[in-house]
UniProtKB/TrEMBL annotation, chain A:
<dbReference type="InterPro" id="IPR009600">
    <property type="entry name" value="PIG-U"/>
</dbReference>
<keyword id="KW-0472">Membrane</keyword>
<feature type="transmembrane region" description="Helical">
    <location>
        <begin position="383"/>
        <end position="406"/>
    </location>
</feature>
<keyword id="KW-0812">Transmembrane</keyword>
<feature type="transmembrane region" description="Helical">
    <location>
        <begin position="280"/>
        <end position="299"/>
    </location>
</feature>
<comment type="similarity">
    <text>Belongs to the PIGU family.</text>
</comment>
<keyword id="KW-0256">Endoplasmic reticulum</keyword>
<feature type="transmembrane region" description="Helical">
    <location>
        <begin position="222"/>
        <end position="244"/>
    </location>
</feature>
<keyword id="KW-0337">GPI-anchor biosynthesis</keyword>
Automatic annotation (TrEMBL), chain B:
<keyword id="KW-0812">Transmembrane</keyword>
<feature type="transmembrane region" description="Helical">
    <location>
        <begin position="501"/>
        <end position="520"/>
    </location>
</feature>
<dbReference type="InterPro" id="IPR007245">
    <property type="entry name" value="PIG-T"/>
</dbReference>
<keyword id="KW-1133">Transmembrane helix</keyword>
<keyword id="KW-0732">Signal</keyword>
<dbReference type="Pfam" id="PF04113">
    <property type="entry name" value="Gpi16"/>
</dbReference>
<keyword id="KW-0472">Membrane</keyword>
<feature type="signal peptide">
    <location>
        <begin position="1"/>
        <end position="16"/>
    </location>
</feature>
<protein>
    <submittedName>
        <fullName>GPI transamidase component PIG-T</fullName>
    </submittedName>
</protein>
Amino acid sequence: MTMSRKNLLLTYSLAVGVRYLFLHSDFQKDIVNRIEIQTPLNSFKRVVEGRYRMSLGIDPYESDSLHVPPLHLTFYTFLIDNFPNYLPYIFMLIDLLTGHCLYTFARRYMLKLYIKQEKNKHTYAEDALSQLLEGRDLYLPPQYALVVFLFNPYTIFNSAAMTTTTVNNLLLSLFFVGIIYDNLVISLAAMTLSTLQSFYPVIMIAPLYLTVYKRKESHLQACLTLFIYALSVIGIIYISGIIYNGYQFLDQTYGFILKVPDQQPNVGVFWYFFMEMFEHFRLLFLFSYQMNVTVLYFLPLTFKFREDPPLLAACFVTLIAIFKSYPSIGDFALSLALLPCWKHLYSCMQQVFISSVTIVITTALAPILWDLWIFWGTANANFFFGATLAFVTAHIFLVTDISFAYTKREYLLKYGNCRQINGKDAKLVLE
Amino acid sequence: MKILVYVLVIIHLVSCNKDSFTEELLLKPLYANKLYSHFQFTTKWDVDATSDSMFHTNLFPRAISEIVVRHNIQELHISLTAGLWRYETWGYPVVDAAPGAEVWAWFNPDTENVDKNWKELANSLSGLLCASLNFIDSTNSINPEISLRNSGVVQGQVNNTFLRYSSLPREIVCTENLTPWKKLLPCSSKAGIASLLNAGYIHNTQYHSVGIMFRPICADKACTRKAVELQQTVSLVYDYKMLGNRQWTLRRLFGQGIMNACPLAKESSIYVDLSNDDKFDLEPYPHEYITAYRGGYETTYAKYDIKRIKPMSIAASYEGKEIINVNIPPPLYASQYKTGFGQQNGGIITKLYNNHWADLNVVVLQNFPWYVPIYLHTMKIESNGNILQPTVLKYKPGKLREKAHYLEIGLRLPPKSTISISIDFDYVFLKWQEYPPDANHGFYIGSAIISAMLPLAKNYTGIPQDGSTIADSFNASRSGYLVQIRTETMIITLPTPDFSMPYNVICLACTVVALAFGPLHNITTKRLILKVTTKKKLSEKLKSFFKK
């Protein structure tokens, strides 16, 4: 049983209604310019500026105002030139598409989980019944995912600000659809475009590899897929270079992401850290931080979640949102919308309450502290930094909690709920 | 016999040095109880500026000729200014100058590395004038295409890649700049009009500006021989309120009367502008009255020839009641200000006022430092509510920490209109070591320069391009009168981090990273197993704790 067509339609029209109301409200302008939503990397104002400079015959990548790669700039330029009055509605549509992708993904994912469970049921421990999926888990989580995405204020603000993150979220959700339906073309295309825009999705090669390997049972085929991916990324960069007379855009897009030259505050931990960093340690910490988000968790998590590539991809999405150099709440919107898909892990999670309360509080507190610092001058940078620190910590707790819950559930399915060894009390420990 | 030869050679050398020095002072009462005094010292020298003969100086300051030859300079303009020239009430000055320090130079077209020469020139000037011009480098310099033209003679094509302009609005101008400047004069401040420049008096003025201009000129009308010219200027604006009353005398303005002329000067004169509605008598009686017609306006000057006088002080005595007129502003003036509140987004508005009855063509040059990233697409030019399209738009985007933003807008201002140019910018966040010691003092944005050729010479005192002395500006009607209006400088306070926090921030941020690394490391490298728990009583726990 899936969500009825009528309910789905109702959800979408409600989502459009909320967005429309917000778009025409008085505080729309104040909210969309906030640094929690707009970063130098995803700001649409900078895209407009880049397009304007191009129209004057100035190389948009000569300065450091534009950090969108040429292919995406062409797309946005097309949008601005042809539908200047409908831009907010286009971004609204992109949001709805993203929501629908997530819904499709979640439905298929829950179904796959259920099929797998029915197949392996005989291997599970007898008292693990409480861990099993029920029939309603097939249709509730997709609905939740859809609603959480479409009605999350993060998403609404993000699309109202017309950030490029909105498009990136669509690409990433398409990637999820691609890997769950084993559709190589969609997942490859989505991943390529997403990598081109924000670089970090490059680590999604792990879930892609696992998906292909699980389907084809061949390492060669999987490697070939990655090869095609690498080829298309390099190919597009090469062609962009030819069209834009040179490769200075590389420094303004990927160089900008990796070197973090702009210290504009955002919801991450990077900005204040590199603002206050001693100059001679900058390179060391830059490397450490970039490795932290790209390679550090890449192999361990891949091995751990080799049976569940979508979960791996979701963990990566959350870790990227947390540790990327210019995170915005739009990035977190996607990782939060994926949470309902892990409904089967909820019973093993321990810190959901603390994390969610912290997220809610910091989301409300950060803008206040920002205003106190920037507009009223009664607080300083430390206040806002504290809020972002707590916000990030809450998300870290969420992602580590999910990883641990996955491990625990695997254990419980296999060995059951028994907590005694030879009649003596025992407890579960990681060793 | 030998001595005679030497003497002949020396006489020959001296007579060959075809140089001349002129010293002038212009006193002009301004609207709203102000007195403008402009000192103009001009040294002309028939010499080829690129040759070694530049080093055999007589009246020309050797320090300048060394700088010119070493840095391959064609033309050099320096001004050090404190205060703002109020165009709206004061009219146009002889020399326009922006608040703070302003330098621009044209290099000879055979210069290989202009940026290197420019940097070295700034350092030399810094030493010469005791000003912080050494802060000038490629990050705060621009090379405008239209606004700053050569004022001297040029051979061949003009190429703006050999031009550099920079302004330091934060520069504070005081005696330490004036003293080395005075040493460049042939008589220093020991004799002549320059002896009036007493630091204790001139820095009490509302506006003071010290300027140096070096340029190549023609030695004769046909321009067959090259020559160089050095103009040294000091502009001061006194406020009668600060003087006590409006009965000014040289003694009250400068602390002393004039003793004599500089013996090396060819001409030495003081001019007093008498064309103010509020009449005053001069004591002693001037040597000559000059009536000058220029660009449709008549001006009367009283001239004192200092070569003919004994030590004296000029005194102006107003009779009767003070006449307060309605201020009639000059044809074109401008102002600039910042909009927005807080430290997130801001805007800059430049307002141009055209009081002329016809269209005026102007060029607005804006030089935004790299820490003011502007959004060009937000630029809006409005004139009395209508959108105005620029006739020319030149823009070179800046770059964080590397290059200033340069914007030049050509505009045709409608008659009797107020034009506002608005543009948005973002506040940038710098690394903590990039803030100056007094971080909350703020960061300066330099003046905009508005250049125009005015069709009439109302309120205009500038020296024509073909002239070099104040006397040359009398009866100098031309087809247009160049003004280069400087607007106010602005100050923005960039948001600052907590400077005492680096260790705390590094520790806290690293802790958060560790919070992710630790659990993920545990989960991915360890297995879940059941382990027997041995429950101890609290007393046993304490015992085992103390045993350790």
